[in-house]
Amino acid sequence: MTVIELRDLAHDVTNNLLTGFPSAKLDEAIRAVTGADGLIAVTPIFTTSYSGLFKSFIDILDPQSLADLPVLLGATGGTDRHSLSIDYTLRPLFTYLHAVAVPTGVYAASADWGGGGESGSSTLPTRIARAAGELAALVAVSDRSDRVIDPFALPEGFSPSGSFRA
Questions:
Q1: In which domain, by residue range, is 140 found?
Q2: 49-50 and 39-46: which strand pairing?
Q3: In this predicted model, what pLDDT tens digit does every residue of 94-105 receive, in sequence order?
Q4: 29 FRET partner, CA 20 to 30 A, in 5, 60, 95, 160?
Q5: What are phi and psi of 29, to 5 degrees?
Q6: How many domains, in total, are found in the chain?
Q7: Which CATH number covers residue 117?
């Protein structure tokens, strides 16, 4: 398991957005995410959406690199009022990238930490366990580990003569 803290890569992400080239440390993080069998993507919620650093990291990924990747979506925030942010910001983002998001998103509000764990209809540990089980089931049937993605591969049907076969 690899944990990537984006705050440690903030300058690298910004430099990549400006130059188009990742640092060695950022390249390692990108390869870890795009080569994973499953992903747990968690962001703090700011003004009802994911953080700018989170989105900037997603923006530097190849748009096809997360296709068919099982993803557990998670977020943290100050109040339960933003718990739907997973469904109206994160889920559409990962759907656009053709990732496979598990049905249960995990949102943790301040009330989940030390307040008895009661938030909504279930406790945080219960939501985490349910989402983790869904992620494990998707990873078990995923064929991502069988694929090799070559960023320099020629498109299918490419002909050396410069034309494409139909």
A1: 38-146
A2: antiparallel
A3: 999 999 999 999
A4: 95
A5: -65, -45
A6: 1
A7: 3.40.50.360
Q: 111 — phi, psi (to 5°)?
A: -65, -20
Give the helix/strand (H/E) hosting 18.
helix 10-19
48 domain-assigned: yes
Sign of CA dihedral 40, 117, 134, 100: negative
The residue-averaged pLDDT of 72-88 equals 91
Is 8 a residue whose pLDDT tops 70?
Answer: yes
Q: Does some domain include residue 10?
A: no
Query: Higher model confidence: residue 122 or residue 135?
Result: 135
Q: Are strands 122-123 and 118-119 parallel, antiparallel or unpaired?
A: antiparallel
pTM of the predicted structure, to 2 decimals: 0.81
Question: What secondary structure letter does DSSP report for 56?
Answer: H
* Cα separation, 157 vs 140, whole angstroms: 32
Whether residue 163 lies inside any domain: the answer is no
| In-domain check, residue 131 | yes
Mean pLDDT, residues 61-77 taken together: 95
Listed residue (33, 45, 44, 43) closest to 70, CA to CA: 33
